[in-house]
Amino acid sequence: MKRRTRLKRNTEKAKQFLRKSGLAGWLRSKKRKALAPRGRKYNERRAKNFGPKAVFVRQLPCLVCGRVPSDPHHEPPLSLGGDARGLCPLCRACHDYRHHLGSAWRFCAQTGVNLVTEAKRIESEWGDAA
After folding, report:
1. Which candidate, 80, 90, 85, 82, places its Cα nearest to that of 111?
2. Is residue 76 reached through a cis peptide bond, with omega within 30 degrees of 0 on the bond before it?
3. Which helix (H) or strand (E) is 121 found in, with range?
4. Number of domains in the chain
5. Which of 99, 51, 97 lies closest to 77 in space, CA to CA?
6. 90, 64 in Cβ contact below 8 A?
7. Does a structural domain hold residue 88?
8. I want to staple 76 with a disulfide (CB 3.0 to 4.6 A). Which of 5, 39, 58, 82 is the partner?
């Protein structure tokens, strides 16, 4: 009986700690949710934002470190009005770093790669290849 009481008390202490630290909501949000089936609108938006150009960009080496394969990165990001014209190749680590910094100019200053001009150069290569 003592063990069950102690376990219940420790569980309550853990819940209180999570509530005080503000992590309770974060833990609840991380619980796995059932994925809704993706519909026609999702597929149309995905084709518009990536399309066949993304296959071309994935084959190019990363602009920062030269790794292959690379992820197509939108410059400017989709949230700021970017589209498939502004795709440039970044490996997964450099892509995450670019989004972590938030600013394209900060990324340019730290890596020496101007993603806007590179995206324009790749767009012209894509136009020549197509």
Report:
1. 90
2. yes
3. helix 115-129
4. 1
5. 99
6. yes
7. yes
8. 82
20-65 per-position pLDDT tens digit: 655 555 445 544 555 556 777 777 777 776 788 888 888 999 999 8
What are the tokens at 6? 């102690």
Q: Cα separation of 46 and 106, whole Å?
A: 28
- The whole-number pLDDT of residue 61 equals 92
- Answer yes or no: is 1 within a domain: no
Stretch 9-29: mean pLDDT: 57
> 74: domain range?
44-129
* Per-residue 3-state assignment (H helix, E strand, C coil) for 37-90: CCCHHHHHHHHHHCHHHHHHHHCCCCCCCCCCCCEEEECCCHHHCCCHHHEEEE
Nearest to 75 by CA among 22, 120, 15: 120
In a domain, 28, yes or no: no
Mean pLDDT of the chain, nearest integer: 75
